[in-house]
Design brief:
- 44% of the residues lie in helices and 19% in strands.
- By secondary structure, it is of the alpha/beta class.
- The protein folds into 3 domains: 122 residues, Rossmann fold (3-Layer(aba) Sandwich); 73 residues; 146 residues, Histidine kinase-like ATPase, C-terminal domain (Heat Shock Protein 90).
- It has a 6-stranded parallel sheet, with helices on both faces. A 5-stranded mixed sheet has the order 8-10-11-13-12.
- The protein is elongated, with a radius of gyration of 30 Å.
- Keywords: Coiled coil, Kinase, Phosphoprotein, Transferase.
Length: 370
């Protein structure tokens, strides 16, 4: 059902089409009050109040004066044609749903109108009272959902800002101060201080993962994949891990080839998570991580091996799932979930195998671009 009181802006230059739409509302047993440029009395507000504009130049004032529930928009008007009409109206109201009216039964035109911000499109000759009211109801609901998602996205962006900067800055300070205390702590307090540093680094990695997950879900279609220099990403993340984890060792086997892969700026998070996991969830006194890269004409494979406890065969297929973690792990499982999601977006693959003689090897394949 549509609301008992509905305020509609009809932008249509054909008087016959405008009258037909009015009759569709009446046929659906709705009282209709038409307001055009010659109307002087204020509308009653009962039923459907239909404001009619026959040219694009009068739309601005109507939108400034009235809060509309829906806009029915003809694409071809005096002074405006085609998709530029949708752009014109969309630029002047971001909250009111738009249904495009077209006399051309062309699906491509309707799809293009939706991509420009309309909620739906109707072919005039195919409109019935039932079709019109159903389209209005769905458009209003879709717009409400769109606005809700927009607000949630903005809230996520704010959370991302807090996570990436405020919390990380505070935890970086904690790690720095804890390391300064190392020479002032006797052997009784060394293990506690090591635990503080280890846990703080874990929090730093978690905040980065959370921020990167937020970035993946708030990205737009404009955030296309592009060539990314793999060598600089890997070398930067290796250096970061060496700074963060004094008790861990990371070795690069061979040379990292200067190749480009298809990815985006979040590629660094893939390897940051793999490196950190290899050290954080390692049961050895000295965690060791080895990195190497292999290439062919089409793909690049990055391998990250560790000397940790390994991963049971029964979990090798599920470890990349959302929230997955081992029974002995204190982690959340979001790191490997993020790795899997990003690599999938890049059109690559990630899997884990046993290391020899102990530990695990994570392999990431990516499309080579250069």
């Amino acid at each position: 059902m549509i609301p008992d009181e509905l305020t509609v802006l009809l932008v249509e230059d054909n008087p016959g089409d405008a009258r037909l739409l009015q009759e569709h509302f009446r046929d659906a047993e709705h009282a209709v009050t038409v307001v055009d440029d010659e109307t002087t009395e204020a509308p009653s507000g009962d039923g459907v109040t239909l404001y009619h504009c026959d040219r694009i130049s009068t739309v601005d004032q109507r939108l400034a004066d009235v809060d509309f529930d829906i806009i029915l928009l003809d694409l071809n008007l005096p002074g405006s044609h085609g998709l530029e009409t949708v752009d014109y109206v969309r630029d002047r109201t971001s909250t009111t749903p738009i249904i495009v009216l077209t006399g051309v039964p062309e699906e491509r035109l309707g799809i293009d109108a939706v991509s420009h911000g309309a909620q739906d499109y109707l072919v005039k000759d195919e409109v019935t009272p039932e079709v019109l009211l159903r389209a209005i109801r769905y458009a209003i609901e879709r717009k409400k959902t769109e606005e809700k998602l927009r607000r949630q996205t903005e809230e996520l962006r704010i959370l991302n800002q807090l996570t990436r900067h405020d919390i990380r800055n505070e935890m970086t300070l904690v790690v720095g101060r804890a390391r300064e205390l190392a020479e002032h702590v006797d052997y009784h307090g060394e293990s506690q201080l090591d635990e503080i540093i280890r846990t703080s680094n874990h929090i730093l990695q978690l905040t980065r993962s959370i921020g990167d997950i937020v970035s993946t879900v708030t990205r737009t279609e404009a955030d296309d994949l592009s060539p990314v220099a793999l060598k600089s990403v890997l070398e930067s993340e290796v250096e970061s891990v060496r700074r963060l984890y004094d008790g861990g060792s990371i070795e690069i086997r061979g040379e990292i080839p200067p190749v480009d892969v298809r990815a985006n700026d979040l590629l660094s998070s893939v390897f940051a998570n793999l490196f950190s996991n290899a050290i954080l969830y390692n049961d050895k006194e000295t965690p060791r991580v080895t990195l190497w890269v292999e290439t062919d004409d089409d793909e690049v494979t990055v391998s990250v091996a560790d000397n940790g406890p390994g991963i049971p065969d029964r979990r090798k297929e599920t470890i990349f799932g959302e929230g997955e973690q081992g029974p002995e792990s204190s982690g959340t499982g979001i790191g490997l979930y993020l790795v899997n999601q990003l690599v999938a977006q890049y059109g690559g693959d990630v899997w884990v195998e046993d290391n020899d003689p102990e530990g695990s090897v994570f392999h990431v394949t990516l499309d080579r671009l250069g």
